[in-house]
TrEMBL record, chain A:
This is AMP-binding protein. It comes from Paractinoplanes pyxinae. Residues 84-286 form the AMP-dependent synthetase/ligase domain. SUPFAM superfamilies: Acetyl-CoA synthetase-like (SSF56801). The lineage of its organism: Bacteria, Bacillati, Actinomycetota, Actinomycetes, Micromonosporales.
UniProtKB/TrEMBL annotation, chain B:
Residues 5-64 form the Carrier domain. This is Acyl carrier protein. It comes from Paractinoplanes pyxinae. It holds the Pfam family PP-binding. InterPro entries: ACP-like_sf (IPR036736), PP-bd_ACP (IPR009081).
């Protein structure tokens, strides 16, 4: 599979160097001289890494995208094999799972189709310029890269982030047209009083990686509207390579709270309250061991998302919660997502208690929250524990690290 | 406690560093604990500690301890007391 459209450009914001066909060819030659099987690739945001990624895809070698900040020895130990299924192209780690994370197995078709679907709904053309705002091993970061490269657009590799001057300098210097963020970054942008007028080339913001509070959806949609720009709310999972839905900006106000309609070629149904997606971008299945890498497709294009939701008569999906995110308080099941929707906290399940973490809450606010949440649940306050924290722990993909919160109990 | 000591304390607390960690040479890029989240927390801590409201431009310019000293100086925090 070749994702590198002839017009595509990848620029390192610091060195100004751009990716060339020669660099990809050199990476191909190097890979061809290495043992077969899985290519373990720590995804630093650099040209040589992007070249190696594209080279692996061209050679049909399955490439496992890894967090460069982590020790990845256990992945090498668990998944070193030359027995890989011929359709296998990209392996992604699943976040948030315990102990030995599973891998998501994606075919070249799924990866390419998803990149095309995304480019179509976001209107990505060769004129677009995106900047890296997310790690490339994370499915959202990968999809920004893929959907731009395949359309001959430009990707600016920037290793700083939105809290740093260099990032915003690069945005203006390279004429960046779109920025992709997860909800925690929108919270930061709000604190930074993000003003799109200061970045005149930026015409669209995209959002995925978890539910963005509707007041922030409205806020950022309005900020972008003042400069004739757009906010795209999106929905996906690594298991779908990753995008499944986009909310057209023109319908955003009217469908507030929706994550949009299925991508072209995809479809949502609700089965026993669970959101089920069918489409050409669904994974082949998971891999827990090296032997699983030889397996073919076990999903048949069907993904049970584990999300609870409903679809309206125009096909707009509304996510209402997560099947597994439940706590019991005095034996009564509580949806942790509902708690988070109604109170400014991160909620986890304690031992027959609801435990919530409130950022920067004073003693009085802690007491007040405890009373209000207990009242809202219709339960005694002794079933609710409120803890004040300076900040919520985050995973590399910017989502709340619930495991870290649970382990702090 | 002098303002300089208060600033050092705020850095150690926000970046989750030991009580005796040297911080005067810290740079955003070089310290793995100084990420975007820690930066938010640091700015909030400085605003509380010195009763100031730090502008957006100053928030993203605050890329080192030295930079923080000069930015807070603009807001009237005196480090030569």
């Amino acid at each position: 599979m070749n994702l590198f459209h002839p017009g595509a450009r990848v620029i390192d914001a610091v060195t100004g160097e751009t990716l060339t066909e020669d660099m990809i060819a050199a990476a191909e030659a190097q890979l061809a001289g290495e043992p077969g099987g899985v290519v373990f690739l720590p995804m630093q945001t650099t040209l040589p890494v992007v070249a190696r990624y594209l080279a692996a895809l061209r050679l049909g070698r399955p490439v496992l995208l890894l967090d460069p900040e982590h020790d990845n020895a256990s992945f090498v130990e668990r998944f070193t094999t030359t027995e890989v299924h011929p359709d296998l192209a990209v392996l992604l780690t699943t976040s948030g799972s315990t102990g030995n994370p599973k891998l998501v197995r994606l075919t070249a078709d799924a990866v390419r189709t998803n990149a095309e679907q995304i480019a179509e709904v976001l209107g990505i053309t060769g004129d677009e310029v995106a900047v890296t705002t997310l790690p490339l091993f994370y499915s959202f970061g990968m999809s920004v890269l893929n959907s731009h490269l395949i359309k001959g657009a430009t990707i600016v590799l920037e290793r700083t982030g939105i809290m740093q001057r260099d990032f915003w300098t690069a945005v203006n210097e390279h004429g960046v047209t779109s920025l992709a963020f997860v909800p925690s970054q929108y919270e930061m942008l709000r604190r930074l009083r993000f003003d799109p007028a200061k970045y005149p080339t930026v015409r669209s913001l995209t959002q995925a990686g978890g539910r963005l509070r509707t007041d922030l959806v409205t806020d950022f949609s309005e900020r972008m509207a003042t400069v004739g720009g757009k906010l795209y709310v999106m929905y996906g999972q690594t298991e779908a390579g990753p995008r499944m839905a986009t909310l057209p900006p023109a319908r955003l106000a009217e469908k507030l709270g929706s994550v949009g309609q299925a991508l072209p070629g995809g479809e949502f149904t609700i089965e026993d309250d669970e959101v089920v997606y069918r489409g050409p971008n669904v994974m082949m299945g998971y891999a827990e061991t090296a032997a699983d890498l030889a397996l073919g497709d076990v999903q048949g294009g069907v993904l049970r998302t584990g999300d609870l939701g409903r679809v309206d008569d125009e096909g707009f999906l509304f996510i209402t919660g997560r099947i597994k995110r439940m706590a019991k308080v005095f034996g009564v099941r509580i949806n942790l997502d509902d708690v988070e929707k109604n109170f400014p906290v991160a909620a986890v399940a304690g031992d027959d208690k609801l435990v919530v973490f409130a950022v920067g809450a004073s003693d009085d606010e802690v007491r007040d929250l405890r009373t209000k949440i207990a009242e809202w649940l219709g339960t005694h306050f002794s079933g609710v524990i409120v803890r004040s924290v300076e900040a919520l722990p985050l995973m590399p993909n910017g989502k709340t690290d619930y495991r870290a919160l649970e382990s702090s109990l | 406690m002098s303002n300089l000591q208060r600033l050092r304390e705020a850095f150690r607390t926000s970046l989750d560093l030991p009580a005796d960690a040297p911080v005067d040479e810290l740079q955003y890029q070089d310290n793995e604990k100084w990420d975007s989240l820690a930066h938010m927390s640091l700015v909030a801590a400085l605003e509380d500690e010195f009763s100031v409201m730090i502008d957006t431009d100053d928030v993203i310019n605050m890329s080192s301890f030295t930079e923080a000293v000069s930015i807070l100086g603009k807001y009237g925090v005196d480090f030569n007391e």
